[in-house]
Design goal:
single chain, mainly beta, 36-stranded antiparallel sheet
Length: 434
């Protein structure tokens, strides 16, 4: 089986009798491999790098997925569980055990609604609870660490959400009005603007009677008041206040796409699209003589050329997998990218013909991955040639660590611009730091 894109680059697959791809590859090499049993269920799959990225799938007697695991080389710990799944009598996942042995739980009521989610954390588990009304609508939720629940109120025969009340019993959102189609056309949100100070923002949406499309949007800001500001003060009259009130009118092209925005001062921004909906010209001002951004695409839809309103031409080239490999930026240089990771990841970014207006800048970046495709190290140039590295320091699962017990940690070697990552025992990225 073969698939070709508009640029005539091909991708081939070797399907089984169920039509599932056992092997897929293109002109650059193998993309993925998979093996299935006689009933068409996946047994294992791997990426570009054979064996190193292979993960297996286990099933129960009902052919429900019960877990995924890796088989590591001899001397590296044998089998590593990625996760395990437990089901209730209604075939719903109620527990998931991750690679660290931590249990994630989900409880359901008699109607099948998820009412409690428990995830492991330190020092204790985090519990998220949900309560429902008799009609099935969410009545309230309580997030981990909250002393009280967040309340939700509904209005009208369509039961549209009308109010959101925080655990401190402060109303932060109100849907005041809606039309016959159930569309809210007047919504209020409370926004903090300073310590102890808030503003209410009212958004009014007006629809066209002939096309049912948005005709205009009016945003009104209340006068700043002290928290909790249950009764805001609004400016009057509305259309004469250009400081706290902004109204934007919307115009559409023949295909019904948003193409013109007109402010209350009559200033227009115009967006022109082609038949496929791609932006080909954008006028930030009403008149073309004041500047226009233009865009050109190749037959596959990749952005190839950009003409900025300052008269600069930015060009880009793509490989057979439609990945950006070269971008020419005037007054900056040529940005090049290489994809040589074990799973085709980006491994290097560098600039040729650099126009260094600052002095001593080295924008090169290199990334290193292990055979399973996990990021191990990256490099950053900083200042006058001082290079910083990120070196991996493995911590075995179950071994105490000062910041991340039971996980693999990547430690920073030196430099204020060095970057670090935190992975769990299954190699999943969980955090990053500078």
């Amino acid at each position: 089986m073969e698939l070709r894109d508009p640029r005539n680059h091909w991708t081939r697959a070797w399907p089984n009798r169920w039509g599932q791809a056992r092997l897929s590859w293109d002109a650059l090499g193998v993309l993925a491999r998979s093996t299935f049993n006689g009933d068409g269920f996946l047994r294992w799959s791997e990426g570009k790098t054979a064996d190193s990225s292979r993960s297996y799938v286990a099933y129960d007697h009902l052919w429900r997925v019960t877990g995924r695991y890796l088989v590591r080389p001899a001397g590296e710990g044998g089998v590593l569980r990625l996760d395990s799944l437990l089901y209730d009598a209604n075939h719903r996942v109620v527990q998931r055990i991750d690679a660290r042995g931590q249990v994630w739980k989900t409880d359901f009521d008699t109607r099948g609604n998820a009412i409690r989610s428990i995830r492991p954390n330190t020092p204790g588990p985090d519990t998220t609870q949900v309560w429902y009304r008799s009609d099935g609508m969410v009545d309230s939720t309580r997030a981990p660490g909250d002393a009280a629940a967040t309340l939700y109120k509904y209005s009208g025969p369509l039961k549209i959400l009308s109010q959101t009340i925080t655990p401190s019993r402060d109303t932060v959102a109100r849907n005041l009005m809606w039309d016959a189609f159930g569309r809210p056309y007047q919504v209020e949100r409370k926004v903090p603007v300073a310590l102890g100070k808030v503003q209410w923002r009212r958004t009014q949406t007006f629809f066209s009677a002939s096309s049912n499309l948005v005709d205009s949007i009016r945003t009104i800001r209340s006068f700043t008041c002290d928290t909790p500001c249950a009764t805001p003060t609004w400016p009057v009259p509305l259309d004469s206040d250009s400081v706290l009130v902004e109204r934007v009118r919307v115009r559409y092209d023949r295909a019904g796409r948003d193409s013109v925005r007109i402010s209350e001062r009559g200033i227009k921004t115009v967006t022109i699209r082609d038949r496929l909906g791609r932006v080909v010209r954008a006028y930030p001002y009403e008149y073309p003589s004041q500047g226009v951004d233009s865009f050109a695409y190749d037959i596959a839809g990749n952005l190839r050329k950009t003409w900025t309103r300052r008269g600069h031409l930015i060009t880009a080239d793509y490989d057979s997998r439609n990945r950006d490999t070269l971008t020419v930026i005037p007054t900056v240089g040529t940005v090049r990218k290489a994809y040589a990771g074990p799973l085709g990841q980006l491994t290097r970014i560098w600039v040729t013909g650099l126009v260094d207006s600052v002095g001593g800048a080295r924008p090169d970046l290199s990334l290193v991955y292990d055979q399973r495709g996990r990021l191990k190290a990256d490099t950053v140039w900083s200042g006058g040639g001082s290079r910083h590295h990120l070196c991996p320091r493995p911590v075995r699962a179950g071994q105490p660590h000062d910041r991340c017990p039971g996980q693999l940690a990547h430690a920073i070697r030196s430099g204020p611009w060095a970057r670090g990552c935190l992975d769990d025992a299954a190699g999943r990225h969980v955090a990053a730091e500078l």
